[in-house]
């Protein structure tokens, strides 16, 4: 019961008529008069909002402005970026390997890393030397 009263009161308030009058302050002359309701104001603002959003999206989608959006670009620029990323990754990897090699070489030359000597003797097969 209370819900029906609330619903009827809400719809009644939405349909109540109001008058918006714009008056010249010096002469008290009515310049413009509008008859409005809460529902008509809500519909007008909703329509304006939807139109503004639609125009903004259309402006971005159908003009070159989309290239200024971060993360968006042409297909060529994206493939070029991927190639550059692969090159930088491989360069970073090679620099890392060279740094590891130099660090290991420094340790060996400074003597901080013991060098394991090979104590097994090599058997070298003798070859026949032909003298001319």
Write out the strand line-up for the largest beta sheet, numbering strands in chain order.
Answer: 1-2
By DSSP, the count of extended strands is: 2
Order of helices and strands: HEEHH
Structural class: mainly alpha
Question: How many helical stretches?
Answer: 3
Q: How many structural domains in the coordinates?
A: 2
**Low-pLDDT residue spans:** none
Give the radius of gyration.
Answer: 42 Å
- Describe the sheet with the most strands: 2 strands, antiparallel
How many angstroms does the end-to-end distance come to?
A: 126 Å
Query: In percent, how much strand structure appears in the residues?
Result: 5-15%
Q: Please estimate the helix content.
A: 55-70%
Average pLDDT for all residues: 85
What's the oligomerization state? Answer: single chain
Q: Given the C-alpha coordinates, what overall shape results? A: rod-shaped
Give an overview of the whole structure.
With 132 residues, this protein is mainly α. It folds into 2 domains: 7-70, no CATH class; 74-104. It is 57% helix and 11% strand. The protein is built from 3 helices and 2 strands, in the order αββαα. A two-stranded antiparallel ribbon has the order 1-2. The chain is rod-shaped and about 130 Å long. It starts with a helix and ends in a 22-residue tail after the last helix. 0% of the residues are buried.
